[in-house]
Amino acid sequence: MLKNKIVAAVSVAALACGLASCSSAGEDKTLTLGYMPAWTDTVSGANLLKEQFTEAGYDVELEELSDAAVFYTALDNGDIDIFPLAWSERTHKKYMDQYGENLEDLGIGYDKAESFFAVPTYMDDVNSISDLKGQADRFGGKIVGIEPGAGLTELSSNTVDAYGLEDEGYTLATSSTPAMLAELENAIDNQEDIVVTLWSPFWANSQYDIKRLEDPEGSMGEPENMHWLARDGFSEQFPDVVDYLGNLTLDQEQYESLENLIVNEYEDGDEDKAVQEWLGTHGDALPKLNDA
Where is the ABC-type glycine betaine transport system substrate-binding domain (predicted)? Predict the structure, then answer.
C-alpha cells in the first residue's frame, strides 16, 4: 500500500510558518526532482516546481532519467525526492506494486488523465479500435507506440490482445515518444493511414489533426489522476513542500498551456523563461506559497 505519512501536526506546523520560512538555517534545503526528456509531463511538472521552490529559497536540482523503471527505482533509493505528475493509479501500477510501499503520495497534480489509440481525422471510416480489424495491410500491420518500458505500452499491448489484433496481423511497434510523433507528423503531411498510442494531457493532441478511437472493450481503462510522488521520509523533512503540493492541482488548460510553452514555444534550456511566461497568465490561480 502506498504510504501517506502526512500527519496533522506536520501540516499545522507547515501552515504556521509558510513555505519560504519553515526551514531552519542548518536544514538541508536541496530538492532533487526527476524528469524524462521524452515524457513532457515530467518536464513540465519538474520545471514548474523548480521555479516555485527556487523562489522560496530552495536549491533545486533536476535529475534526468531514462525510463519509468529507472524513475521508480531512483525514487525508492532516495536518489531523487519527487516524481512530478506520475501516472501511479493504473498506467504505472506494476511499478507501484513493486515500489509503492516505500513511496509517499503528496496529492493529485492533474485529474482525468487518459490513454488511447488515435488516428488522423481524415480517416473517416476508422472511429473505434474495433474498426482496425481486417485492415492490417492498410496500416502496414503496425500500431506505432512509444518507449518499451512505458505504462502506456503495457496498456496498449493488453489492448492488442483484448481486440485480437495480433491475430489480425498487427504488431505494437515500440520506439520512443519523439519517434512516434515523427511518424505521425510524416503520415499526416502525406495523408497516409497511421494508428498511434497517445495520452491526455499532451500537447500533441492540439498540435496534430487527430482523433481518439473509441474503446468499447474498455481495455485502455478509465481516466486516472496524476500524482506528486515522493521518496520515503520526505514529508517529515519537508512538511512545507508537502502541504504546498497537496494544494497544487492543474486543470487541462493550465497544464496544456504550460507544456506547449516549454515544448514548442521555447528552445531547450529556456524552460525557466517558458515557466515565467506561463506564470504571468496563470500564477494567480496557483496556491500561494505562504498558504502552504
Answer: 29-279
